[in-house]
Amino acid sequence: MSDTRTFLLTAALLFLSTPAVAQGGHGMDHGGMNMSQMPAMDLSGMKKLQGKAFDRAFMSAMIPHHQAAVDMARAVLPVSKDANVKAWATAVIKDQNREINLMTAWLKANGGTDAAMAKMMAGSMQGMASMVKSSKTPDIAFVQGMVPHHASAVEMASLALQKGSHATVLKLARDIVKAQAQEMYDYRLWLLKRGQ
């Protein structure tokens, strides 16, 4: 197994097993609502798929998932008082919009959106930006929200690395795991310094 593949799989397993991720983010204060109140992602339908059907489901689900991160970043950017959070939010908007455009174009060329998967994911992502907007500490709310959000992206992308059949899907999945595992690490260090 290559060093890169070992790193990616280890990072995915490590972050998915952290208490905040495994417990749905219990204890996170987002102005009266915490991540444990968010509907859990149901990937059972995606896990049953193979080949092109899996690829379409993954891309279709990842678009609203990415959009939720963009919406959270746009919510925190105007009110952030932290240089790191501003930089992270700006990067989320840039990187995830670029990937949304890639996924949208790929779906147009490969059978179109899996509407059921897109709807399921959009429902799971509702309310994330409003948690940042309603928090008394929006910087902390954003970073706390992004940890489990990225963890769920890593979970889906890890599944795609196992079941994907198109080179574009596999590359995107690898890029998501690599980038978002590093970002989760940075977020956790930032939170630890603030006693979170």
UniProtKB/TrEMBL annotation:
Residues 23-107, 139-195 form the DUF305 domain. Keywords: Signal. InterPro entries: DUF305_CopM-like (IPR005183), Ferritin-like (IPR012347). Residues 1-22 form the signal peptide. It comes from the Bacteria. Pfam families: DUF305 (PF03713). This is Uncharacterized protein (DUF305 family). It comes from Deinococcus enclensis.
